[in-house]
Amino acid sequence: MNRWGDAATWVGEGLHREVFYFGPEKSRLYGSLYSAEPLSRHVGVVVCPSWGYEADRTERLAHRIALTAAQVGGAGMIFHYPGHGDSHGASLADATLDSLADAAACAIEEAARRRPAIAWFPVGLMIGAAVACIAQRRSALATDRLLLVQPELSPSAYFGRLAKSAQRVTLGSGRINEMSFAYPLPPKVLAAGTDSDAQVLDALDRFAGDGVVVRYANPPSDGTVPDTFTCLTVDGSWRFGAKDYPALELGIEEWLAGPSL
Amino acid sequence: MPLIEQPVLIPTSQGPAGGIVCEPEGSPRAALILLQGGGRAGRSGFSSQWAVLSRRLAALGATVLRYDYWKEGDSSMITAERYPIGTHLSANVARDLALLRDVASWFLARTGGLEPIVVGYCYGARLGLELAAGLPSAASTVLVVPYLRRIEETDRANWTERMRRVHAGRQPEDQADRAQRSAVDLLDPVAVEAFERVVHRGPSWVLIGERDAGEAVALAEVLGDRGLEVEIEPDVALYPGNEPDVQELVRRRIEARVSRLLA
To answer: Considering only CB atoms, which chain A residues are within 8 Å of B85?
Structure first.
């Protein structure tokens, strides 16, 4: 018997919080849900995190997005990828873009199961943006909307860059071909090369909904986001491994609270 | 052994703190609080280091709680303001400790008289030490590379610098600087006083690596023959602990120690 289940929810400050595991028994994923109590906007976001170290560094931002979505009357959900954070499942080293997108689609379905009155859509942080694009196509329960935050839409370029950064930080020592900042690099994604990029581009090509990008002015966009997306640029520069992203946070909050939702 | 793993939102005076309880089905034998370091990876740790360990400790027979510190992860609604890392450290520590005391009080009340064990790594070891020193009942402490310096010390090498030095096969701190000040001088009297209380109240074990800073060794000298056990793992730095081999070593050593405590 589970004697702790009663502590999985918290209600206060106009919010209802729930924390839980969901998904298949052998790879149960961690989920954390924020929703307004009562709901005044029937819109919710499922935040697709970034990867490894960067996911750790942006977890505060991820929770901030979900919390803000709830504070403006809707809902937000965080989840951890298989083998990452509090989730179970295969090691991150076994991840593919498909397995990450499957987890994101599963999270959207869990959010919809828990709050069926809400129209859910994915938000992608950094490389999580690539995951969000594919998950949005993959989940029948996701609405036709995408929010991409400081998007990294080329997995091959992203992980290639991550591997090089790790080499610099460790001064060329350590497991430079396998690890990046304490996390295993995903060999299957690296081996897939530009095939992974093509998967993302295909999902973006097929996306005909309301797409929004929030990003820093620097570095300038690499052009991978389609012109059909609304781009909200905030002051400042993206810095890998930063602890806080106040301008980005503010830009997202303004959009979540604004009339377009 | 079948395990129950349940995310929880712990009511505290500062707001809900997000935690995960993991325990064996059946009758657990201890209430264990697992405290991660102060970095951004939160309660699960880099590469789920602490999530994996909590499941192993639960399989040994403990009810294990780990939680996110102030404003991190699922403790996002903790409303008090936090100062940036590197400034107002005493104030941050006091607030982290206040939250930990609320969390521990909730956890220990629900575990109904089970023996408390406090396990901590680096900054978490420091918090755990001060928690254990103030608990109303006896507690065992298992502390890995505890942060024992004066909290406000500003000249400590930062995380990246320490990692670079360790990867280059050197000590994590500048030895010229260390030579000017003995490790005893670096010890925070608050930590020493907490240890003096803890060693009287239950088994207290500290693990450091040979390449880690030597304050724990100095602490053993200060405390003398008063029950503090310090073990030194040869030829390794256990901090920052982001290499898989080091993570697994730390997990195995903690697991073995907790296993002894539960025997």
So the answer is: 243
